[in-house]
Design goal:
Layout: H1 3-22, H2 32-53, H3 66-89, H4 119-134, H5 138-163, H6 168-177
């Protein structure tokens, strides 16, 4: 196991893990939906950590060629960069996910949001993909599928709330020009 790549991925997962402490409003609580959303990310981070320290010995489905190692680095760098870029885009911290007090005060359509409606989620998906490339095992695939399902559901709920807010028309127009998790080609 490449210790440098494993460390990079674990740093990436840790950066995601500390987001509630360093960026989001402090008036939120970790409710059930927060844990459901975080579970697939915690799963892959935990499996990767346990594999690294020798607590488990998962047999990978393939050996990591040099191109895949480079892809792991690029994907993880993208994830870390996107998290930082997204935090820098906001003028004020957001409500912690799935809170009753997360009514929008404005619509952010600049910075990272100029290209992607949910750049934090995009970075979470990207590190999950990098972790699968690094440790291709069904448990890691399970984490990725869980992440995609719950983030897609969460994003749809957030988009519905924004579409029905005072900013509804503006947000619906914005949705036509940007992708949910990845840039919309040709927009």
């Amino acid at each position: 196991m490449n210790m440098t790549l494993a460390t990079l991925l674990l740093v990436n997962f840790a950066y995601i893990g500390i987001l509630p402490r360093i960026f989001f409003k402090k008036d939120g609580r970790y409710n059930l939906m927060w844990f459901v959303t975080a579970a697939p990310i915690f799963l892959n981070a935990g499996v990767l950590f346990c594999q690294l320290v020798g607590l488990i010995q998962l047999e990978a489905y393939w050996t990591l060629p040099m191109a895949a190692e480079l892809a792991v680095v690029l994907l993880s760098a993208f994830s870390i960069g996107m998290i930082s870029y997204t935090m820098g885009t906001h003028r004020i911290p957001l409500a912690l996910w799935h809170q009753t007090n997360d009514a929008p005060a404005n619509i952010v359509t600049w910075g990272a949001y100029k290209y992607i409606r949910h750049p934090f989620y995009s970075s979470f998906i990207t590190v999950q993909l990098a972790s699968i490339l690094f440790l291709p095992h069904w448990i890691m695939f399970l984490g990725m599928v869980g992440c995609l399902v719950i983030l897609n559901r969460t994003a749809a709920r957030e988009e519905n709330n924004l579409s029905n807010s005072n900013f509804g028309k503006e947000y619906q127009a914005y949705m036509k020009t940007t992708g949910r998790f990845f840039p919309k080609i040709g927009a």
